[in-house]
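Board notes (copied after class):
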Amino acid sequence: MPESEAPATTTGPRVRPVPAVTRSIAILRLLGRTPGPLTLKVIAQELGMISSTALHILRVLVDEGLVKVDPATKRYSLGVGMLALARSVIESHPFPALAQPVLDRLSATWHVTAIGVEIGAADDIVVLALSRSNAPFRLHIDVGSRFPALTSATGRLVAAYSELPRAELERRFRAAHWDEVPDFDSWLKEVEAVRRKGYGLDRGNYINGVAVVAVPVFDRRGRLSHALVAAGVGDQLAGAKAQGLAKDLQDEAQRLSELLAARS
């Protein structure tokens, strides 16, 4: 079976593929999202790699401490070296530390799951911080979780504050996961509304029965870099309450934008 190559991007600077790097990252992501250790055969099959190629990459990752292998079972899992990398990212990135007290207050005040995300350079959104309320409602999400860029209310922000052409927006829109897929033209109208109101709202499209509100956090050049997100049961965030939550999120996002700009 031929080994898969990463698809070329349709916008932005041309990136020359480096297969060894792409495959190494794919292995790390596979091990990160799998609950238990995996054999070489399973890793190669899951990623469409030749077994010998996967083995050579795994040996390097093991040697670097990013992956560990059980000598008895020959199964691979993430190594403790990943913790050092993750800690370095968190310590060098001001957003999680600045956002956490904000998220804690928002979750306690509004009884929502409050989330701070980074808008990735690739087609994804990465969770950097979160706070869960004491309400029965829970989202299965953790720090480090990744989602397609146009997912839910945050995706409406990405679409609104980017300069992506319609065709590229539609491609990314189709790649996102939806419980109830909105009509694309209707979704574009909601994206236009984000530019007027300054926040995105998803009512049950991303997850049935769940309302999600997202507001932008900008870097010092005025570019969308992060977002504050709040998720709760749809009935809980109806009408005026959703608007009040959005205003609270916007106030906090404005302060975060200023703090991040001062530190950059």
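Comment from the instructor: Residues 1-12 have pLDDT under 50 and may be disordered. The two ends are 47 Å apart (CA to CA).
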